Amino acid sequence: IRKIGLLTSGGDAPGMNAAIRAVVRACAYHGLTAVGIEQGYQGLIDNQMYEMGARDVKNIIHRGGTILKTVRCKGFYEAAGRAQAYQYFVQNQLDALVVIGGDGTFTGAMLFAEEFGVPIVGLPGTIDNDIFGTDTTIGYDTALNTVVDAIDKIRDTATSHNRLFFVEVMGRDSGFLALNGGIGAGAQDILIPEEHFDLNKLFASLDRGYQAGKSSSIIVVAEGEEGGVYEIAKRVREHYPNYDLRVTVLGHLQRGGAPSCADRVLASRLGVAAVEGLLAGQSAVMAGMRDGRIVFVPFSDAVKKEHVIDNELIRISDILAI
Ligand code: F6P
User: Fold this and answer.
1) Atom of ligand 1 minimally distant from the CA of 172
2) CB 112 within 8 Å of CB 275
3) Activity regulation per the record (predicted)?
């Protein structure tokens, strides 16, 4: 392996730049050429790529987003798109790929590796933390801190007005951000897609809060929750017409900002692991971190198996809402 292409794909996540920097510098360290591919897989299909040296990644470790840009590329789901991408892979004399992204990114990589025998290592980059095989994903810690910071601010105004706030946090179909962010921000209740939604349970929780003398409350709702935050808030409003209720959707602000130190270190370690993994013959795997150690997990496991929420956290959040 002499030349490694790298790309970021899917939703951006804070720490992707730190991962790009680590891959490029690990390549330079090992005497390899790094090639940055722009706009995710789209750049491979359109032949948008350029060589990157160690100095090309200066001053990016602290920046959110991705300097390589990212796309959710539909073309790569098609065999014809992947065939086109392979042509440019060969034309540019690439020997391997490092792809940074989530589920969709790894699914595409798995197919590409299978079809053309291309060595690929993936790095988990998504704020959702919904990837099996790694304790956390690049971007998750930063997003979590953004969520807690935002809810702290909402709490100030909720308390001042004696209001009930429903705060929707991101996470597509998974409740990691909601559950951990909700515990960190001291939510009265946390609604996540992994748990069956029960309106009466929510009413009981609100009643308990009221009886305990709480004058304001925060309910954290994961984006993927059945019905959505506005529908849930509507039903609560119908049941408690006297409550002063507001809804805040945190939205894409959760994806931006400077990466936390934990995300920078994770991205740096995984970036080096990806390059050294490829040199050691790894392929069609994700480089992840489990219990503080680097692990290589087959793409097939990373995309098919579920990263399961710890039920103990649900229990803890219930206890602390007393
Ligand atoms: O996967 C990251 C994520 O931010 C999810 O939490 C969210 O559901 C989705 O991306 C939003 O995607 P988009 O930026 O394409 O609207």
Assistant:
1) 8
2) no
3) Allosterically activated by ADP and other diphosphonucleosides, and allosterically inhibited by phosphoenolpyruvate.
